[in-house]
Design goal:
- It is a single chain.
- The C terminus is likely disordered.
- A five-stranded antiparallel sheet has the order 4-5-6-7-8, with helices on one face. It has a three-stranded antiparallel sheet with strand order 1-2-3.
- By secondary structure, the chain is α+β, with helices and mostly antiparallel strands.
- The protein starts with 8 loop residues before the first helix and ends with a strand.
- Helices cover 40% and strands 33% of the residues.
Length: 194
């Protein structure tokens, strides 16, 4: 790029330098503005999903999700965690472990596999009929209560009301289980899975 605006060569070179500096500044400002807009677009992007099973739409925005999304996952987790038979317990728990947060995975694997071994050894079948479902978005905790029935060789051995707590988090739009525990009563502390 050569400018021939001035008679002196040095004046033309100075004008070229000024123009090039201006272009570099404009490109720099455009790059910074682009980076800021891209960051905002990624953080404020909403994904709206309307699966055939749900009657309303669910939204995922960054590390937050709509209550319908959390409720759908809590029903799925309750089905995997609390209703099982000796033949289905290992595959169900493997599928459940895929939902665990990375730091909670080792503890969850240990607890679930111990329970699976007990279920296979004792030939216990458990059925959970979900009653109430409460989502506390502030604490990132789900409270699931319902009727649990356990059978051994087609004989009912237990029919009790149970309440479970599911601690969760939404990380990059992905639902992750942090901990599943059983809520005993108001005076005692929560215990691990049965």
């Amino acid at each position: 790029m050569r400018l021939n605006l001035f008679l002196q060569k040095t004046s033309n070179i100075v004008a070229e330098n000024r123009l090039l500096k201006f272009v570099v500044v404009v490109i720099g400002v455009a790059a910074i503005a682009n980076a800021i807009m891209t960051y905002r677009a990624l953080n404020y992007q909403r994904t709206i999903i309307v699966p055939p099973v749900l009657k309303s739409r669910i939204e995922i925005t960054g590390d937050r999700a709509s209550e319908e999304y959390v409720k759908a996952f809590s029903r799925y987790i309750a089905a995997l965690s609390f209703s099982y038979s000796p033949g289905s317990v290992k595959p169900q728990f493997d599928e459940l472990l895929a939902l665990y947060a990375p730091e909670a995975f080792p503890e969850g694997k240990r607890v679930l596999y111990e329970l699976a071994d007990r279920v296979i050894t004792t030939q216990v079948t458990s059925v959970f009929f979900m009653g109430k479902l409460y989502v506390d978005g502030e604490k990132s905790q789900i409270e699931v209560s319902g009727q649990r029935r356990q059978y051994v060789d087609d004989r009912k051995v237990e029919d009790v009301t149970k309440t479970y707590l599911i601690d969760y988090r939404i990380s990059d739009g992905r639902f992750q289980v942090v901990r599943i525990s059983e809520k005993e009563d108001a005076n005692s502390q929560a215990a691990r899975l049965p």
